[in-house]
């Protein structure tokens, strides 16, 4: 006489799932604490550093003193770093999910170059003020994304390496267009040369309010797509069998990623590797569940960007190194590691 205890398996698995969810939730709190620390350092560190205790006092009780003025001048820069870091990291993880491409990144896939070209053409036609609008960057980002996908697929399956190569080709064409326009028009070149490296410095404080609605809308839409992105990771046929409309998910996800990238590029210029490095780090301990990937990236993207900005201020003091250059140094090893890991194939 044999006995079977089918209930024993779920009983053992449920606590494991619960404990993992608890650990990931605690990890989110830790990521939030890191973000608070990065925000504090961003406000405190500069050509003249301010103790963190004085930063807190200046924020709560501004008195018009020199320290209070310095802290107030750094707050918009820090706010901009939080928005741009979150936008780039979340856009990166969504692009990777939509294309099932571990090398998916707004910079590698030509989206940043498309937004840059659109901004430069807008400056050329309508002036520098018009070029700071997010609407100036959206058309180029969208056209570049579509062009990379069409070139990378070429009637066949769009593998990660093909998409990266297509992104490089499209980016080269767009960069050539940008340089041709900027070098022949001095007014455009003056605006372009301080913007192209990617920097949080020297941006007008009102820029935060201009891009905030776009970033929030993009982040909310990406959060709503967390479950569809999980289903899409199983393949189009499996996702369809689960009731998912794959085409609609790609359309909405692509629109959200485009808006996020366009807002970031219009605000601070093209910043590379944030959208590649942060999702790779997060995925190493959360797995591929976008319900965890997206909030972690929204918190750790600003941490990377603000930390890079602080490093740029420290290593070149009393001047500073542009944050786009620092993120390139930090993010490039992640691209090498992703390729050497053997997860991408022609």
Automatic annotation (TrEMBL):
Location, primary (coarse class): membrane
GO cellular component, one term: plasma membrane
Residues spanning the membrane: 78-95, 107-127, 133-151, 163-187, 207-226, 251-273, 293-314, 321-339
Gene3D superfamilies the UniProt entry points to: ABC transporter involved in vitamin B12 uptake, BtuC
Keyword annotations: Cell membrane, Membrane, Transmembrane, Transmembrane helix, Transport
Subcellular location: Cell membrane
Gene Ontology BP terms: siderophore-iron import into cell
Pfam family, one: FecCD
UniProt topology in membrane: Multi-pass membrane protein
InterPro entries given in the database record: ABC_BtuC-like, ABC_transptr_permease_BtuC
Molecular functions per Gene Ontology: transmembrane transporter activity
Family according to the record: Belongs to the binding-protein-dependent transport system permease family. FecCD subfamily.
Protein name as catalogued: Transport system permease protein
Species annotation: Cellulomonas fimi (strain ATCC 484 / DSM 20113 / JCM 1341 / CCUG 24087 / LMG 16345 / NBRC 15513 / NCIMB 8980 / NCTC 7547 / NRS-133)
């Amino acid at each position: 006489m044999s006995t079977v205890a089918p209930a024993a398996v779920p009983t053992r698995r449920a606590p494991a799932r619960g404990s993992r969810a608890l650990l990931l939730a605690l990890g989110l709190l830790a990521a939030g604490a890191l973000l608070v620390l990065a925000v504090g350092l961003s406000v405190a560190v500069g050509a003249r550093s301010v103790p963190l205790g004085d930063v807190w006092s200046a924020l709560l009780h501004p008195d018009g003193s020199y320290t209070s003025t310095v802290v107030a001048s750094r707050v918009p820069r820090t706010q901009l770093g939080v928005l741009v870091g979150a936008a780039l990291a979340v856009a990166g993880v969504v692009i990777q999910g939509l294309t099932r491409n571990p090398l998916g990144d707004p910079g590698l896939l030509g989206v940043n170059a498309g937004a840059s070209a659109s901004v430069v053409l807008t400056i050329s036609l309508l002036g520098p003020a018009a070029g700071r609008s997010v609407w100036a960057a959206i058309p180029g980002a969208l056209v570049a994304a579509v062009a990379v996908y069409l070139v990378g697929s070429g009637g066949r399956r769009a593998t990660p390496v093909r998409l990266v190569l297509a992104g490089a080709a499209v980016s080269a064409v767009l960069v050539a267009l940008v340089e041709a326009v900027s070098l022949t028009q001095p007014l455009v070149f003056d605006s372009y040369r301080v913007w192209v490296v990617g920097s949080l410095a020297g941006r007008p404080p009102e820029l935060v309010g201009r891009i905030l609605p776009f970033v929030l809308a993009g982040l909310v839409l990406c959060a709503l797509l967390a479950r569809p992105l999980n289903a899409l990771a199983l393949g189009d046929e499996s996702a369809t069998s689960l009731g998912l409309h794959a085409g609609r998910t790609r359309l909405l996800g692509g629109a959200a990623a485009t808006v996020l990238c366009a807002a970031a590029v219009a605000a601070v210029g093209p910043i590379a590797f944030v959208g590649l490095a942060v999702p790779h780090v997060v995925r190493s301990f959360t797995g591929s569940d976008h319900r965890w990937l997206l909030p972690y990236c929204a918190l750790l993207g600003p941490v990377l960007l603000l930390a890079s900005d602080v490093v740029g201020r420290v290593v070149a003091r009393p001047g500073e190194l542009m944050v786009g250059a620092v993120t390139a140094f930090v993010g490039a090893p992640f691209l090498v590691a992703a390729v050497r890991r053997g997860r991408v194939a022609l």
